[in-house]
Structures are given as structure tokens and as C-alpha cells.
Amino acid sequence: MATSGGGDAGKATISKKDVLAEAEAKLAALEKPLKLQISGRDCKHDSLSVIEWITFEIAPVKVNYCVTLSKSTLEEKTANLDLDQNDRSIVQLMELVFNQVAVMNPQEHAVFEGGKVFMSHPWIFGFHEKDCPDVGNGARLYPGTQKSVRFIEGPGGRGYNNPALIVDAKKSAFHEEIPLIEKAKLILNDNMQDKLSRIALERLNTGMRGLFFFTKHMGHECDHQIAGIEVHTAEDTKFEHNGKIISVVDYFYDKYGIELRYPHAPLVKVRERGRTNNYPMELGWLRPMQRVNISQQSPDQLQRTTRSCAVPPGERQDNIAKGARALKIFGSDDNDFITNAGLYIYKNPLQVPGRVLPPPKLRYREDTVGVRDGKWRTPRGHLLIPAECDVWAVYGLIANQDEKIVNRLLISFAEMFYKEAGVRGIKLPHPAEIAVRLDEDQLGDTLKRAAQHKCKYCLIVTADSIKTAHKRIKLWEREFEMVTQDVKLSNVQKIVNDRRVVTMENILLKANLKLGGLNYELELNGMFANENVKNWIRPGRLFLGIGVSHAPPSRHGDGDKSTPSVIGTVTTVSDVVNNVFPKFAEYHDNKFPRDLIIYRSGLSEGSFSTVITHEIPLLRGALAQLGAKNVKIVFIVAQKEHNVRLMLDRIDRARKPTDQNIPPGVVVDTELTHPSFKEFYLNSHITLQGSARTPRYTVLVDDLDLEMDELEGMTYVLTYDHQIVNLPTSLPTPLYVANRYAERGRNTYTAHLISGSGSSDSGASIDYGRLAHQLSYNYTKLSNIRVNA
Predict the structure, then answer these.
(1) Name one Pfam family in it (predicted).
(2) Residues 420, 485: one domain?
(3) Do 672 and 152 touch, CB atoms closer than 8 A?
């Protein structure tokens, strides 16, 4: 502060620096947070004027937090095998730095969780209208980027540790910035002039609940969030105003001079300031850049979105570059945030060496076939172990189809199925019953009666338009302990009318597995010159898949609190050895396995420490109690939900997506991998559309000290053991099947709740132990066959 004489005597000049220093000193001396209140009427923004008081709470930062980036820090705090010693904040700091351009430019970017950023004006960054297609129901796809930081070996290879910025292109559906009434018209395909049915109201509630919108009938914009769609309309909703009862229609005309054009449209329910208000839908406009969540998507919209998001590698490379430039992370020369943090991004992506593993052969009863380009054909003749079934039936579930025509179709299909089953060695009599049912409840009664008459297998042909029956059919399968197979009516029509041989073959291969048969086995001899290949899948080695199906996001983005995470093994994780090992011994001269190879999904890298410090010791303890403490454990985590994309260094964009992608068998195990753990990327599957998503395998425990060739080789050959479709799967079969069982468990649980039999199994009162016993297959006569094939 300074004073001056003359006419300005007595005036003080205070610099900003002095003011900030004084404020900082006062804040540091605060014993508790300082609260300041201002009236909304004093704010310049009209939308804030309706708020009576706005409270600010100011508190000093008590700890001077500092993250130091240096070569020694990176080596000691990011690649330690003792995961508790690693400092996650180093990665978080880098991710914050790389996100600053998006955060500081909200008019151009919308920032979401998991490193996702989407462009609100993508054409500014080189995208075109075709990149942002309309996907229906007032929603449009917008391009964006997903980025993360991970420490890898880098170009130096083993023993080195480098931070890598991993960038991938993303697309997501967003609600368009349109009037609410227009959104409702698109969702329902209705002009909104008449009162809606109960079903239409439910659809509208599902499609619009949780969305933010604004109104401006008060002379300025006011923001609201939709809590639900009311049954009542502006015409039939009345309330007291100035001593008389008036309708919502009259209120808006009398007070605002607005004549509502959709008096029979439902009102929008909003909760604000402790009360519930209802607004006419035609007065609201949606706010921009609101993502369409899963529950808001119709089946048609989901199909369009999936198809539009399937971008081939050549186009994906362009989209990655455009997204990186938009965030100024395609190189870092013009990004002050990165430069000021002392970081630097190389513009060229990392190029890593890879190799292609040879596939196994598949041995059937009478022939052994080879694999070419990731595909093979099932030879004619008997399957390796054909199943047997004494009593079976065929039922149709139709919607609007002609019952007599469908019944004749089922008779023809059943005869073709019976004959082809005989060719494959499957022993079946003619079906005990062929019938058509008109609704799901009628079908449930029929299945119950069939089970009472000792029926072992029901083949159910369902009209394509029926979307809800499959989960109930699988619940009935569990309740009646009778194998079911659900086939779409359109596929049966193709088999009967067009003689689709491959479609019938797939249905039969699945049926044989469901009935306890085995279609083929793996033949490893000749894969490599190395004789050790035959020991990859050897007697005394047990492969176990553990898959988890987590509760899906709710309508508001949080998890469904009443739906548990489902673990897809033959048992729960804690009881795994007590259930699996006796079954293994039963078929192996009462001997336990020597090696236990576990493939685990559903884990993030942040969970690795928990696995190593908790799950593995518990597993070893259970083995010791069982008398199998000498069993060697190999624990491998498989991850598909990462944003690393492996692409060919040269891509011919004129070719179809399958040819642009990396082929089956490509493995990468250097430079791109974890600096401490054994790790590899293995692309085992054919990518028919879009860009390959290659699973990453991290070995957390390896008592056998396996060579990388064996880890990769055994994982790859196991992807050929799915037994149904003649293609390798994206994950080894034990894990792939476990994931499907976990998914089945969730669907069965959902059907159990909807059926009413689960009314006591909701919320905090759920008895998961009883549910596991009631709904899992482990305690039924179906426990030893693969019913989820």
C-alpha cells in the first residue's frame, strides 16, 4: 500500500498481489471454514435470481501436497512388485494434466468418467456428418476420445519403465438439444395430441427420466431435472390459485399468456427445493451433451448405435488422430499444461513386435480337421461323444403368427433335427410332443407338465418379436431341472425353407453339449517343433475360469442396489476348491490336480493388490485344509475393458474390416507390457466388424515359473475349445464359459424377481446364500453338463 500527496492525498493504492497475500494469510489462520451468503437476486445471471440464498464455504488447504516426477520416483513408485508401494497419484496427476484442455474449454468438450471426452462441435476438429449419425428417438452419435496413463516397459524392453499415454477413439449417443415435446414424439412415434396409454407412459418415463432441461416462460432460463413422467395432463390437472380452482392449461394462459398446444400430453415431474412441481412438456428444452444411458435405449436404437460404433482400423486411426489433436495431445508442442508440468508426448505411436501363433487341430470321432484363417468345418459323421436323450419335445411360442402354419413348420423342423442328430450319432427318439403356445404363462405350464412326464430336453422356437421369454425359459430350466434350448423362429424358417445346413449344424452342436456330449477335442501334436506343446494341456492340470457379471448401471447412472454381482464358476470363489477338487478327483482315480491354472475376469489393475494379498492366501489355505497344499497355482487376469488397440503397421483401407484387422493368433509380449509382471496381449478371435479389441493377460502368480511360450500357447489353444461355432473365441474357453454362466445367473435372478417368487429377495433383506442354493445349477442334476451352451 502507498500514499501520495497533493490532490490525491489520503487515497490508497493497493496492488492485487497485496490483496491476495493478505487473503491467504487470513485463510491460513482460520480455525474452521468460513461461510458467506449472497442473495440470488443480487446475481447478474437471471437463472440464479430465483434462488433465495447461495452459500459459499471457504476453507484453507491444511497440507501442502506435492507430487515429484523424476526418474528415480518413477522406478520406485510405479513398477514395484509390492503393489502397496506404488504411488497411484503419479498416474492421476498425469491424467489430470492431459485432461486440462478439455476441462478449460467446456464449450467444445464434454468430460466424462474413465478418461472419456466427447466433442460438442466435432466438425471443428475435422469430423463430418457421417461421423455423427442419427440413431433414432432424438439421439445422435458424437465422436470423442478415451485416454489413460499406464506404465509399460517401453522401447527399452524388460527392466525399463515408461509412462505411456494410451488413446482410443470413442463414439457415444447423446440426446439432441430439442424441445421435450419433440423428444416425446420421437420416442413414441406419436403426435401427442391424445392422452397416452399406460404402456406409452412407461416407455416415455424410461426414455426421459433423469434428463436435464430448461424453461424460459418466466423471462429467463431455469434448469430442472426430470424426476418422472406424470399420468395426468395439463388439461385434467387442477389446483387452487387466487381462491379458485383452475387447470394447468388455464394457469399458463392467465399468468403468462401461453396457450398450450398439447393439453393432453403428460406433465413432467420435477423435484426442486423440497417440493414437487409439474411442468407442461412443451415448455421445456433439453440441455445439450447428455449421454443416452443403457436403459434409455430402445432395441432398434441400440442396434443402430452398435453398428455405427463398429469402425474399421483405418478409419479408427484417423479418428484417434483427430481426437488427440482436439485435446492437443497429438504431440505436446502446443499444449502449455503439458509443457509446464515438465512432460512431453511423442507424436508417433509405439510400434511393437508381434508374432502369430499356429492353431491346434480339432479331432472328431472319425476325422481330424485343420484350421485355416481362424475357421474350420465340422466333418460329416459322428461327433466325438454323442449324447443320448430318452424323452424330448418341441414347442413354439408365437406372437402374431398363424398357429397352424407354425405348427406345420415345427413338425418339418423336428423331423430334420431328428434325422441330422442320427447322422451325428446323437441318440434321440421322435419328439414326444410338438405344440404351439400363445403366451409365456401357457408355455411355463407346458414345460412344468413336460418335466413331470420325465422329459429331459425341450427345444423351444420363439417368435423374433418376443424379447422377454428367454430369461423366463432359463428360470424354468433351473426350476424344473430340464434342459431347454431357445431358437428363433426366423432361423427355423431358414432351415426348413432354405435348407440352411450350417444353422442346423450349430443348433445340433449346442444340443449335444447341453445333453452332456462332447463335439471334439484339441489336437496339439505338430503345432510346434517343441515337444513341450503336448504338456500344455496335460493330465493333472486343471483349468478354472472365474467370471463376474456386475450389476448394470441404473437409470441415473449408479449401480442397481438390489442386484448382486454374480460370479460365474461352478461355485463361489471362497468355496472353489471344496467344490471343484472333489469333482476332479472323482474322475481322476481320486487324485487332486497337480497344477491349478486360474483365468479371472472382472478385475481392474487397481484390484491386483487385493488378489495377491487376500484371494491367493485364502486359496492356499483352502487347498491346505483339503490336503492339497502342494498344488501349484498360476493366476492369470484377463482384461478386455482397456483402451489399447493393436493394429497392423500397414492397413489397406479398401479391404473389408476382417482383412484390415490383426489375424487370430497375434501375440505381443514386449514393450507394451507391464514392467514388473509377466504380461501379454493375445488376439485369438476373428474380428468380423469394427476394430479388434485384444484381451490383455497379466500373470499375478506363477508357482510353475512357466515360459511365455507356454503361457501364451495354452491360452491360445483353449480359445478353440468352445465346441459350438467353428471359430476361436476372444477368451480361453474356461473363462468364456464362466462369463456366460455369470450372465446367466444375473438373468435368472432378474427373472426370479419379476416372476413374483423373488418378492422377499429384494433390497437389504436379500439372503444371497439361499438365493445361490435356489438359483444356481450346482445343486441340481444339471450341474455336470454345460446347459448354458
Answers:
(1) Piwi
(2) yes
(3) yes
| Nearest Cα to Cα of residue 576 among 626, 610, 515, 536 | 626
- What pTM does this model have? 0.87
Q: pLDDT tens digits for 220-258?
A: 889 999 999 999 999 999 998 888 999 999 999 999 999
Owner of C-alpha cell 502507498: 2
Judge whether 410 lies within some domain: yes
**Is residue 158 included in any domain, yes or no?**
yes
Please give the average per-residue pLDDT across 645-649, as a whole number.
95
For residue 6, what is its C-alpha cell?
A: 497533493
Q: How far apart are the first and last CA of the chain?
A: 81
Tens-digit pLDDT profile for residues 602-630: 898 888 998 999 889 989 999 999 999 99
**3-class secondary structure, 145:** strand
DSSP conformation class of 431? -
In the three-class reduction of DSSP (H, G, I as helix; E, B as strand; rest coil), residue 586 is classed as helix
Q: What is the CA radius of gyration of the chain?
A: 31
Return the CATH number at 668.
3.30.420.10
Cell numbers representing residue 542 in the block:
486343471
CA distance 577 to 579: 5
d(CA 465, CA 462): 8
Tally of domains within the chain: 6
306 and 232, same domain (yes or no):
no
CATH of residue 275: 2.170.260.10
Angstrom distance (rounded) from CA 362 to CA 376: 9
Structural domain boundaries enclosing 140: 72-175+302-340
> Strands 433-437 and 392-397: what pairing?
parallel
Examine the domain organization and report whether 558 and 424 are in the same domain: no
- pLDDT-based confidence at 558, cuts 50/70/90? very low
Q: Are residues 199 and 167 in the same domain?
A: no
